[in-house]
Amino acid sequence: MLEEIIIAGFGGQGVMSMGQLLAYAGMLEGKGVSWLPSYGPEQRGGTANCAVVISDEPVGSPLVTMPSTAIVLNNPSFDKFEPKVRPGGLLIINSSLVVRNSDRKDLKIIELTATDVANDLGNARVANMILLGAFLEQTKIVTEDSVIESLKKVLSEDKHHLLDINKQALKKGASLVKVAIS
Amino acid sequence: MGKVLMKGNEVIAEAAVHVGCKYFFGYPITPQSELVAYMARRLPEVGGIFLQAESEIAAINMVYGAASTGVRVMTSSSSPGFSLKQEGISYLVGAELPAVICNIVRGGPGLGNIQPAQSDYFQVTKGGGHGDYNIPVLAPASLQEIVELTEAAFDIADRYRTPVILMGDGMLGQMMEPVEFKERSEQEKTEKAWATTGTRGDGGPRIITSLELDAEGLEKRNWSLQQKFALIKENEVRYESYQTEDADYIMVAFGTVARITMNAINKARKNGIKVGLIRPISLWPFPEKPFIETRDQVKAYISVEMSAGQMIEDVRLAVNGHAPVDFYGRTGGVVPTQEEIYEKIITIAGGVSV
Description:
heterodimer; A: alpha/beta; 6 helices; 6 strands; B: alpha/beta; Rossmann fold; about 40% helix
């Protein structure tokens, strides 16, 4: 098993945290993991992305150029990474903000209005967790339990009241994918 | 302590603390600022001192002062800041002071950018400052290896009374991987009888200096330094060979680039091309042995670097005309992709002469 994931969006949408959660969860499950952020003269509102590799073997290259999965949270990220997903790969789109349509026929594409759903849950900032939940449901790459365990470690104590809404968002994302598939 | 997920820069800092470094003098610069920030938080917890200097030049001279007292001390920077430290590094060599200096390399020359690069290879391996000298340079490829090599860097520094450089690129500094800090089985303790810790009627004053006005005296000191460098060359060479036994082609790469290259090698192997990798871990002393052992069997070596071609000169010296040496590199902060490197392997293996 080798998953090479790119998660991209605006700074502040939680794309870096999504990647770290995945990497952390993979580590808890004894898998080889790496997390590599795009870094540059970036700022809030600019685009940001990270590459996560999860593997049964120790990770070779942490640099991902042709991802097996891309999760895109805004238009510039769609434009940049939609063409790069490898044939047969997975593209997860936050269609609340992405107005583009992919005409690639060689990908599995999941579109979720994550920002709207997050607003319905009462916190726009968990849109990332909805998409992460969808990704986990689709790929089963790590278990939801491991991600929740990671959340407890990644969130500082004073943020632990946010655990519940994050869990809800993960489950919501997973259930939306089940509906989308059936 | 189990595995933890940390950033490369933080791993360097924690590994240094783990091995008894209690003093850090530095100045922040992307992409290594997390190292400085980590030390600022961590060192007071272990009774050490973190000091943000007014400049990189001040920081390296503070390292000189602390090292003179025999403590384990470190500074870190990235390319432009590392250039500023060169005068101080030359002084450390001249005064034979142990210290660890970390360079998380970014795109140059000049102010360049903040993206990953390896284009300080010449600077770290060929001297960098003035005078006849070399410094041991260690180049980790993974975060777990950072732990191992940071510890080794301090040991080598004490053992030979020399500064040691730990070199990574921006990618290594910024990425996260699981690491484990294991209890060290044997802590190396070096007696530092030379340290200037104040006289207590136990002998005359000790002097730490790189100044020697008498030419013959300085030449003598230089020959003694050269003997030390020869000893380091004999004892401190580190490298990894990957699938070189039956290889027709051998890639040469260090640090993160070696990992990207390994992916390309694995793909090429699947397609029946016999290709391997030599990964220098010590950049100085450069590992000559794996080249001497293979150079009469392989069809070509290919040096892959995040520079316009620097390590390739050491590869050529080690191969010494026994086989062609080719190059693939990206520079200015661009990271070579495994696809590009694979293409290069195919081109070379396809019979294109070099």
